[in-house]
Write a structure and sequence with these properties.
globular
């Protein structure tokens, strides 16, 4: 991997810490802002909504701008958004600061993904994305638990100040190490109208659905993991940072392994990860009252959920390769549609008085739906690839369709 890809992963560490640290701050934040746990959980959705909107809009708006300059500007705005959150006098202001931060985060993800993929050979796309997603995984290992600890001992606002400092470090890294690239000219010049054509392809939309359902399954539960641990499993609040760190360790393991196998076995990676995630969530729903089971399954969920992430990213670049910037933006939006849907659905379940184990059941159903959508996508891919082989073969319809079977 080029050094610049690792720098992008380091920047994603700051972004990912901000996106998910609310999960470890729900209780102190809700008490301080005088809101309910589901309302506090909507701050996760607020960030995700900003990501959904911001990724394609900012990707399109910055399409002809130098990518390095765009990354620098977006990281600066993100850092200012964290400062606004740290000094927010009310829930409404905090909610708005989350949306603004998310818009900048979304643009960074979209442009950063396009930069990472452009710096590596075609056969290393999943590994490049795994490096970026690795920053997100490390955020779950270190950043989110550290935010929870800060929230418990120095107030939840201190976590926002810490992320502002992290974003400054990431900004310095991008300035120093991400290479300047001249904007393409002539026929290679990016055109928004040309890139928008990817949305005419049904496979792009189906890849979006699979990604969104996968993310919703994970973050429907993860957003409320802290109260599940304390109120259902009976653990003390001091245990929350440790369990969040275990989830992050699992996410790092899953991303690393998934990134290594996804380039060769893309659909197989998605099938395995989603099936395992469905099983883990269902088992957690049954055993959530047992502290050891809740802790162990939180680690396992991190592995299974993030095992699929590099493959899901690579799949979008496969079906939308003619528009790399919007491909990255669409993947970002898809993940965050799920990140919006998951906490919202989980909050509805809690508000209905069903309890936190019911949230795990709903998460398992979402993972199962993602698995079904993957089966449809794989079948569509096989048909499309087979038709291309037949069209390209001198024998026409006599060409063997088996040659078009995808790996995995």
């Amino acid at each position: 991997m080029p050094l610049a890809v690792y720098v992008l992963g380091l920047s994603v560490f700051a972004l990912g810490t901000s996106e998910f640290m609310i999960s470890g701050l729900l209780q102190p934040l809700a008490r301080d802002m005088d809101v309910s746990i589901p309302q506090a959980g909507l701050l996760v959705s607020a960030f995700a909504i900003g990501m959904v909107v911001g990724a394609p809009v900012l990707a399109g708006a910055t399409l002809r701008l130098p990518r390095r300059t765009t990354l620098i500007a977006l990281l600066a705005v993100f850092g200012l958004g964290q400062v606004a959150g740290a000094v927010a006098p009310s829930y409404g202001v905090l909610f708005a600061s989350r949306v603004v931060s998310a818009l900048a985060c979304a643009g960074f993800w979209a442009v950063g993904a396009a930069v990472a993929v452009s710096l590596v050979p075609p056969g290393a796309k999943a590994r490049a994305m795994a490096t970026m997603i690795g920053g997100l995984s490390i955020a779950n290992v270190v950043g989110v638990p550290a935010g929870a600890l800060l929230g418990q001992h120095a107030g939840w606002r201190s976590a926002f100040w810490a992320v502002a400092a992290l974003s400054a470090v990431g900004l310095a890294g991008v300035v120093a190490l991400v290479p300047r690239t001249a904007p393409p000219t002539g026929a290679d010049r990016p055109l928004l109208r040309r890139e928008l054509r990817i949305y005419r392809d049904g496979q792009v939309w189906l890849a979006l659905v699979v990604t969104a359902l996968s993310a919703a399954a994970t973050f429907c539960l993860f957003s409320y993991l802290s109260p599940l641990l304390t109120e259902t499993a009976g653990l003390a609040e001091d245990w929350v940072p440790t369990v969040l760190a275990l989830f992050g360790v699992g996410a790092l393991i899953g991303t690393s392994v998934g990134g290594r196998v996804a380039d060769a076995h893309l659909f197989g990676t998605v099938y395995a990860g989603l099936a395992a995630t469905t099983a883990v969530l269902a088992l957690l729903a049954v055993t959530a009252h047992l502290p050891a089971a809740a802790v162990g399954l939180a680690l396992t969920l991190g592995v299974t959920a993030f095992f699929t992430a590099p493959a899901l990213n690579a799949r979008m670049f496969d079906v939308a390769g003619a528009a790399p910037t919007l491909a990255g933006a669409t993947t970002t939006s898809a993940f965050n549609i799920g990140n919006t849907l998951g906490p919202w659905v989980g909050g509805l379940v809690i508000s209905a008085g069903r309890g936190y184990p019911a949230v795990a059941w709903v998460s398992a159903l979402l993972a199962a739906a993602a698995l079904g959508a993957t089966a449809v996508a794989a079948r569509w891919h096989r048909r499309t690839a087979a038709s291309r082989v037949v069209a390209a073969s001198p024998a026409g319809a006599d060409a063997p369709a088996e040659a078009a079977e995808p790996t995995g």
